[in-house]
Amino acid sequence: MMNNALFLQIAGFNIKIDFQPTEWVFAEKKLKQDIKDYYSGFILSKKPIKINYTIIIRESIAFSTINEKNTMYVGLYVVNSSTKITTFYQISIIQFQIIIREALSNLLSCNNGFILHGSSSGKDNKAYIFIGKNGAGKSTSVSLATPEYKALADDTVIIKKEKNGFYFYQTPFIEKNDWIIKDNKKYEINNINLLIKSKEYKKELITNKNMLIKRLIKQFWTNQSDHKNQIKLIIEFTQKFNNFYYLYFGLEKNKFQNLLK
């Protein structure tokens, strides 16, 4: 904590969490501790020179009833600007994740990045990304790659253009497998694998870029109403990055790991 603030670094962005004075001391302590526990790998030890986004947390007494008799609601957040949002000590860590998603979605949409539904494993500072429909085996792939390959993501991955290259970052989101250790490290993307369950173990280079663009757009996640620039970035990424593969696999760990090699 620095002057009652925490600083997170996610995908190269610096996010300030500003804890305002409150009489709800127990709620403040609980939320602070939860943020420290769940986002420990993204917390900076020093105040960064540049702040890309600010989350203000303050006390709220604003309760309202909406279209339901005897039902009370607490406000979740107020958007102050494109780089500032205000929330309240009465929220939970799960609700705080919604706010982090909002912040990250705004930052990525303006700074050459996007989020894909996918999983990932890493080795030698390189990320192997797995995509596919629900049930395609994204979580299974990460489990099969472990421990030879470090588990990096189970449900969401960040791809960001920096200078002339594209890089992988872990999202800070709480996912299905909470045993995955996350931090703000940047990885070179080794390849992206479209998963196909099979009795065979093989990889085939994907040459149909039009099909690939459609598939990646389906795996793309955002809460921005205007995401044309991100769609353009996905198309650019698909055209410039050539290591896209069909990955046919079963459940044998050794064969799967050899396939990645």
Molecular structure report:
By secondary structure, the chain is α+β, with helices and mostly antiparallel strands. It has 2 domains: 5-111, 3-Layer(aba) Sandwich (Rossmann fold), CATH 3.40.50; 114-260, Phosphoenolpyruvate Carboxykinase, domain 3 (Alpha-Beta Complex), CATH 3.90.228. The chain has 6 helices and 17 strands. The strands form 3 sheets. Strands 8, 9, 10, 11, 12, 13, 14, 15, 16 and 17 form a 10-stranded mixed sheet that branches. It has a 5-stranded mixed sheet with strand order 1-2-3-7-6, covered by helices on one side. The protein has a two-stranded antiparallel ribbon with strand order 4-5. Strand 6 (77-81) and strand 7 form a beta hairpin. Helix 4 crosses helix 5.
